[in-house]
Specification:
With 98 residues, the chain is mainly alpha-helical. It has helices spanning 11-21, 26-33, 37-51, 58-64. The protein has a domain at 11-73: Arc Repressor Mutant, subunit A (Orthogonal Bundle). The chain has four helices and no strands. Helix 1 (11-21) crosses helix 3, helix 1 packs across helix 4 (58-64) and helix 2 crosses helix 3.
């Protein structure tokens, strides 16, 4: 994987990236964010292009660059503490306790 600097992605890209890290398929991401599946796939391609990684390396990139995630990686994806101020997609009633 090429050495890429921390890239500041737009908010929707960061939300999609976090959901990919959590293992959500594009169809579920589209449902949760209320957007079209084709739009999700477009954002995934854009993320890969900007990070200079393949689709398969995207999760590794996100884990190596926590600033690419929602809230700059302050929360562990999917494991938010009770009362977490994070506005990640899974933080609103769907999170698991840390």
């Amino acid at each position: 994987m090429p050495n890429t600097p921390n890239i500041k992605f737009p908010r929707l890209d960061r939300q999609i990236l976090e959901m990919i890290v959590l293992g959500s398929p594009p169809k579920q991401i589209a449902y949760e964010l209320e957007i079209n599946v084709a739009t999700v796939n477009t954002h995934i391609r854009r993320l890969c292009r900007r990070a200079r990684v393949s689709k398969w390396e995207l999760v590794i990139y996100a884990l190596q660059h926590p600033g690419a995630l929602v809230r700059d990686g302050q929360c562990t994806a999917g494991l938010h503490p009770p009362g977490c101020p994070c506005d990640a997609p899974y933080c609103k009633g769907m999170r698991r306790a840390a």
